[in-house]
Amino acid sequence: MENKMFCYQCQETAGCKGCTVSGVCGKGPETAALQDGLIYSTKGLAQMLTILRKNGAPVREEWNDLVRENLFITITNANFDDERIRRQIIKTQELKRELSQEKSIREAASESRLSEAARWTAAETSHPGMGVLAEENEDIRSLRELITYGVKGMAAYLKHAAALGYRSGELDGFMQKALAAVLDDRLDADALTHLTLETGKYGVEAMALLDRANTETYGNPEITKVEIGVRNRPAILVSGHDLRDLEMLLEQTEGTGVDVYTHSEMLPAHYYPAFKKYEHFAGNYGNAWWRQREEFEAFHGPVLLTTNCLVPPRDSYKDRIYTTGAAGYPGCRHIPGEAGEEKDFSELIRHAKECDPPAELERGEITGGFAHHQVLALADKIVEAVKSGAIRKFVVMAGCDGRNRSREYYTEFAKALPGDAVILTAGCAKYRYNKLDLGDIGGIPRVLDAGQCNDSYSLAVIALKLKEVLGLDDVNDLPIVYNIAWYEQKAVIVLLALLYLGVKNIHLGPTLPAFLSPGVAKVLTEQFGIAGITTAEEDIKSLLA
């Protein structure tokens, strides 16, 4: 039977092969087709912008912003709004028509150097050449998608940095060059493999830029105890990743009698000094993104989705969902505003005042704030614990959480780790074990939370600094092992960044990506030691040996 759609970019894709009827994430075939059309058109635009750069022509900042926005919109669980996606395609097509009149673009077209994706400027929102399966060679397809998904992750990091006024023409230029390259039929598997690792290199730089944007704007994260109970006041819940959106909301709710809580990946905002001045910044509510249906129901007040990790809402609370930025869902209100613009959250504040306070889910507090600056401040204490044998291994358990029961493995793994092992984490995977009370080693907590998936850069900085302090030549000689959970495309750029930095023997789960063909998976296994997971007990034996 002919596929109604095909998507395999996330970990939960059907049967670990691909969603062909409707997406496990909740998107239908029409939405999937529109996202395919948006990516295809964006790749064509990227080729045009790459040609302009090569010929010394200026590339406007709003064109770079459009590429980043388009990529972010297609990340898993970001945007389900067909009309919004259709408008983005039309906007991209209009820009391509405008650029087609540039001299260097006309020359490329006359010399048959312009791809079909670039030449496609019609008002239609679909094209026969779009979609993953348009490439028949499974290894070439796999490498092209691996690069594309890595670039999507980069775009998310760069969009957050741009919201704080931090941009890089070099990084935008690489992303566009990479998107153009995946259209080039002359590139064989070896050339695409090289581009994959180059994507990891620029991924490190993108993460470093976002880290600088966040820390120079809000201060270095510091050890913080975060309340997980509730107060008896109306409130707004903020989910996603965008710290600038949270800052604007906190400014506008100050003195209104409305509290603000974080959810899922927004938890680490509590670690930044700049946000601690807001007395109405009440705490963290709930757990990882996939539990939002019951948790948003119980919250009672309006919920602001700033980025991806949006689960299609139930009708019972859909009228309380607001989106902004790249996020969107049909029937939910959207707060407009581009990077650098002031957003108006007055509608949310009015709505919150009409709602009951949130229902209590739990009580207590959780501790985090162990980004690279804070961990390096404890470097002497940590190195002494390593040299004395008090700490035998650091286990990087960063990444994403998800719905599958197989992810209970990560809770079992954390519980079964010996008492001389310390977990380094970033991302919502931490919700599988950050409330287990695993204790400490000489005052060093056994779960060191560096922050969002956006803060994975901290884990690389910590590893490289420990390598220097311990006088080691190879990062793989460190007492650090990697057991990473993944879900969407930001995890892909983190993986590629680690591979570029030379990290080997990463365990990746709960399944290996469906977009890795057998041939590409073999290369990753043989050259980098990438492996899947088995059982908690067996993996602890092999990783801690």
TrEMBL record:
- Cite the GO molecular-function annotations of the record: 4 iron, 4 sulfur cluster binding; hydroxylamine reductase activity; metal ion binding; peroxidase activity
Q: Output the Gene Ontology cellular-component terms.
A: cytoplasm
Where are residues bearing Cysteine persulfide located in the sequence? 400
Cofactor(s) for this UniProt protein: [4Fe-4S] cluster; hybrid [4Fe-2O-2S] cluster
Q: What Gene Ontology biological process does one annotation of this record name?
A: response to hydrogen peroxide
Q: Top-level EC class, please?
A: oxidoreductase
Keywords associated with the record: 4Fe-4S, Cytoplasm, Iron, Iron-sulfur, Metal-binding, Oxidoreductase
What is written in the cofactor note of this entry?
Binds 1 [4Fe-4S] cluster. Binds 1 hybrid [4Fe-2O-2S] cluster.
**Annotated catalysed reactions:** A + NH4(+) + H2O = hydroxylamine + AH2 + H(+)
Q: What is its EC number?
A: 1.7.99.1
Residues recorded as binding hybrid [4Fe-2O-2S] cluster, renumbered to this chain, are 241, 265, 309, 400, 428, 453, 488, 490
List the PANTHER family hit by this protein, alphabetically: HYDROXYLAMINE REDUCTASE
Tell me which family the UniProt entry assigns to this protein.
Belongs to the HCP family.
This chain's protein is named: Hydroxylamine reductase
What gene name is given for the protein in this entry?
A: hcp
